[in-house]
Amino acid sequence: MHLELGLLLTALLGIGFAAQWLAWRVKLPAILFLLIAGIALGPVTGLVQPDRLLGPLLFPMVSLSVALILFEGSLSLRFGELREIGRAVRGLVSYGAVAGLLMLAAAAHLLAGLTWDVALLFGALTCVTGPTVIAPMLRTLRPNARIANTLRWEGIVIDPLGALFAVLIYEAIVSRQQGHTIGVFVGTILCGALAGAVAAWVLASLLRRQMIPEYLQNFGTLAAVLLAFSLSNAVAHESGLLAVTVMGIALGNMRGVHVDDILDFKEHLTTLLVSSLFILLAARLTWPLPPGMLMAGIGILLASQLLIRPLTVTLATAGSSLTWRERALIAWVAPRGIVAAAVSALFALRLGALGLAGAQALVPLVFILIIGTVVLQSATARPLARWLKVAEPEPRGVLVFGSGTVPRAVAKALHDAGIPVLLADDDWDGIRLARMDGLPTFFGNPASNHAERHLDLTGIGRLLAMSTHRERNSLACLHYREEFGRGRVYRLRNLGPEQTTDRAALADSLLAPPLFDEAMTHGRFADLLAQGWRIKSTRLTATFDWPHFIEQYGSPSILLFGVEEKGALRVASTKRELEPRPGWLVIALVPPPRDDPRS
């Protein structure tokens, strides 16, 4: 039996990984495939029965997992960023969220017959979107920058706030059910808030004073979060979720505390927990659903999609600079995700233990809304964006890091060839010259926190790191691997192969594929330009192919890029040789004419 349990849990991890990988391949939210896998393993086939499989461990496992998920979400919330987001986002995450909560609660009360207590909890759980479902959808949707930023910031900010709403409503329900006075409710809230704040202060003090070695910081943070959650629950029943939410918000906004590595670790841990937890939660669903529940869930889905979300967006964006087309798309896109599914399952378990009427309907209704919004919006949002004329084209563009002679010349050639280009650097003189050449620019390091907030990458799909700073090129490549993919990040060497000794070479994990040919470095490229070499763009034909190009301009010519007939950019690198074909626009570095005195 023990071996069987181990094999089954291992199989769940493998299935979770497969669902995450499939979601990455098809560019859809992973929650969709995780839920489908859970439903297939549970209600459909009966292969996985979580209550029998884990027994008394199921409730603590769900509780601790939800605590970590909420902590990770709240850790990413920055008060400073709230001041910089637009009026529309402020409306969506404040009075818009409250309006959505109340309207969703009313729909659940009227259509599903839930009591107002459970209906308000349902509204709090489902009024949120989240970055884990919004980000994959935006990659497929590709709206303009204003829409993308609005949806992205709404998901980031409202995720922990929605969880906080749900925790507060749940605490009020528990207080009433157990006959507690308002003082007990207030005391529970104060205990959770105080426990979270104290835990954040203690952990931040230890990190600031470097009393925890770096390799133990993630371990220590994990232990501190779970300890704060458990101790807060021990002092005041059900205050732990509020404690970890407050702890994350406080820790993420303290000065002098670097939480980037901790956040990365928590994101990876959350991916693991979500992948396992969602399959188990979906497997607990019963089929067939209670009488009338399916139709009630579909009714709530339609009300949410066609009435509640449009009214919420109209109210929240009134007076903003968004156009009616942008508001229309924002009103259509609101997929529900991790917080709604995980917290609803946890609260349903706890409310069921209290014997609250309607608690058993909470999870099915939430899951119907999650599946419905993800499937419907994934299938229709992109065509709607095109029809509204607010969709961006394919990400054909190139981010060029560097503003010296070489990156400006390369960016200018790509720009003239019709490839969207954005040149970024923190050298003002170089940026000024690039602007004089008519190139779009960003003044700042593209791997900085400032760039994360202000650099608009809409339509950009590749990085060419071409600055004169070798380490900063590698840092930029590392930074944008996750954004663009490992195969779409390149660097121009600063040292030739003969100059790169073992002492000077960077680790292979820091390096991206070198641009152009084996001998090309930044210094050599600059020398060739100074000698009169120029970047030449030519359209190949059946009668004038690449060998004819070499014959005309000379065998020393160096192929830089190729642009296919449909506009797709091909980059020449040491990892991938290009074979230009008729119809391509080739961009090459060619020597000066033979009669040029500089040749």
Model description:
The structure is a single chain. This protein is α/β, with parallel strands linked by helices and 599 residues long. Helices cover 62% and strands 7% of the residues. The protein contains 24 helices and nine strands. The chain has helices at residues 2-26, 30-44, 50-54, 58-75, 79-84, 87-92, 95-112, 116-126, 131-141, 145-177, 182-208, 214-235, 240-252, 260-283, 293-316, 324-332, 338-354, 362-388, 405-416, 428-436, 449-454, 470-484, 522-530, 546-553; strands spanning 397-401, 421-425, 441-443, 460-465, 489-491, 534-539, 558-563, 569-571, 585-590. The strands form two sheets. The protein has a five-stranded parallel sheet with strand order 3-2-1-4-5, with helices on both faces. A four-stranded antiparallel sheet has the order 6-9-7-8, with helices on one face. Helix 22 (470-484) links the parallel strand 4 (460-465) and strand 5. Helix 1 packs antiparallel against helix 2 and helix 15 (293-316) crosses helix 18. The radius of gyration is 28 Å and the shape is elongated.
Protein topology:
Layout: H1 2-26, H2 30-44, H3 50-54, H4 58-75, H5 79-84, H6 87-92, H7 95-112, H8 116-126, H9 131-141, H10 145-177, H11 182-208, H12 214-235, H13 240-252, H14 260-283, H15 293-316, H16 324-332, H17 338-354, H18 362-388, E1 397-401, H19 405-416, E2 421-425, H20 428-436, E3 441-443, H21 449-454, E4 460-465, H22 470-484, E5 489-491, H23 522-530, E6 534-539, H24 546-553, E7 558-563, E8 569-571, E9 585-590
Parallel strand pairs: 1-2, 1-4, 2-3, 4-5
Antiparallel strand pairs: 6-9, 7-8, 7-9
Helix pairs in contact: 1-2, 1-14, 2-14, 4-10, 4-12, 4-13, 4-14, 4-17, 7-8, 7-15, 8-10, 8-18, 9-10, 9-18, 10-11, 10-16, 10-17, 11-12, 11-13, 12-13, 12-14, 14-17, 15-16, 15-18, 16-18, 17-18
